[in-house]
Amino acid sequence: KITGITEKEEFLSPEEYEEFVKKEME
């Protein structure tokens, strides 16, 4: 599980969030 994900969702746009998730998954 990624910690702080909901925290980041609050200030990330959908596009930025997608990029963030991709980086975290690698």
The count of DSSP E runs of length 2 or more, i.e. the number of strands, is 0
In helices, the fraction of residues equals: 55-70%
Instruction: Characterize the overall form.
Output: flat
Tell me the number of helical segments per DSSP (H or I, 4 or more residues long). 2
- Strand content of the residues, in percent? under 5%
Label the structural class: mainly alpha
**Element-level helix/strand string:** HH
How many structural domains are formed by the residues?
1
The oligomerization state is: single chain
Mean pLDDT: 75
Rg, please?
Answer: 8 Å
Protein name: Glycine cleavage system protein H
Question: Can you describe this structure?
Answer:
The longest helix is centred in the last third of the chain and has 12 residues, at 14-25. The chain is mainly alpha-helical and 26 residues long. The model has no long low-confidence stretch (mean pLDDT 75). It has one domain. Helices cover 65% and strands 0% of the residues. The chain is flat, with a radius of gyration of 8 Å. The protein has helices at 5-9, 14-25. The two termini are 13 Å apart.
Provide a brief overview of the structure:
With 26 residues, the chain is mostly helical. The chain has helices at residues 5-9, 14-25. The longest helix is centred in the C-terminal third of the chain and has 12 residues, at 14-25.
Question: Would you spell out the secondary-structure blueprint of this structure?
Answer:
Layout: H1 5-9, H2 14-25
